[in-house]
Amino acid sequence: MSKIIQREIITLTTQQNKMIISGWGNDVLEKTIVEKITYLSDGLKVKGYIAYPKDDSNKYPSIIWCRGGYGNAGAIDKFTARGMFGQIASWGYCVFTSQYRGNDGSEGHDDFGSDDVNDVLNLIPLAEEIPQANKEVWGIEGWSRGGMMTYLSLTKTNIFKAAIVIGGIANLRCNAEESKFMRRLYEHSLGNYTEEQFKQRCEERSIINFPEKLSKGTPILLIHGNKDKRVMPHDSLDLSYKLIEHKIPFRLVMLEGGDHFLKSHRKEVDEMRRMWFEKFLTQQ
Which of 102, 75, 71 is nearest to 189 (CA)? Predict the structure, then answer.
């Protein structure tokens, strides 16, 4: 039975296509296909995207990309998907990404790092339906909340040969105390609980509390702006000490003056991402 129950190739206006070329390059438009999909995850109909090279004469490593935000705040629209996921596909990969349950018309409820982690892992079987996808070679990448989803996914499987986390949440409780933005986010996403329940739910989602559960065979590239006001820079710094302690391979890059979105470092970040995946997914 097909896990992808609906597929739609993304088409944009002429003006939007020009913007894609300007922002991400001509290869993104000319050499890749990006589709909006509905797929099955724990019996729920969940929205997401797939992207892959048009050239079907090769098999390409597969990458899961984890979005940030909560609810529809942070959901990826079609234009952004065409650029971002088309870019990764233009590097020679098949890309699988979820909007998470409860978002963008998906069934279920976004629980911010609980059962919705399955929406990430349930992307893996979708590779069976993409002829270009190498189902044996997987990477994963997450930004912000997507970093938390990446860490949690890495505690449940060792399938990934490389991971990238950018501005990732490693300690919810810590951030809630230091950032008004994050406190509001957690209160919205984790519901109306007592302070003790709230603390427990935060700790259950904070990889800093159980780094020993991470896949020991997945090298992680950590990138964080040192002026990030949304997810505190020491989330990545503190986690790096735990990764050393548990002998988990990683590289930590702190970008001077970088904010949460790292817009002023975009080319540098893109090159680091591309090289990390190339090193571990294509040079084996």
Answer: 71
pLDDT tens digits, one per residue of 226-237: 999 899 999 999
Maximum CA extent, the chain: 56
pLDDT tens per residue, range 136-163: 999 999 999 999 999 999 999 999 999 9
Q: State the total domains in the chain.
A: 1
- 231 φ, ψ to 5°? -110, 115
CATH number at residue 122: 3.40.50.1820
CA distances from 217 to 29, 61, 154, 249, 278 (A): 34, 17, 10, 8, 16
Supply the range of the domain harboring residue 120.
4-282
- Whole-structure pTM value: 0.95
Give the separation between CA 243 and CA 220, rounded to whole angstroms. 9
Q: Which residues contact 261 (CB under 8 A, 6 or more apart)?
A: 167
